[in-house]
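for the writeup, i need someone to sanity check this before i put it in the appendix. the sequnce is what the collaborator sent (i think, or maybe the updated version? ugh). structure was predicted straight from it, no edits. if anything looks off just tell me and ill rerun, i have time this weekend
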Amino acid sequence: MFDYLIIGSGFAGSVMAERLASQFNKKVLVVEKIICLPKIICEVENYLESKK
C-alpha cells in the first residue's frame, strides 16, 4: 500500500516523490507513460535473439 500516487514523473514529479519518501518517510508510487517502451523492448529482444 502506498501513501501517495504521483502520475507523471517529469522533473517536478520526481522531486516531489523523492522529498515525500526521504523527508517524510512516505511510500510513493510514481507512474510514468513511456511512449517508446514497446520499441525499446523489441530492440532488446531482437538484440538478444541475434546473440544466440
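The chain has two helices and two strands. The longest helix spans residues 37-50.
thx in advance!!
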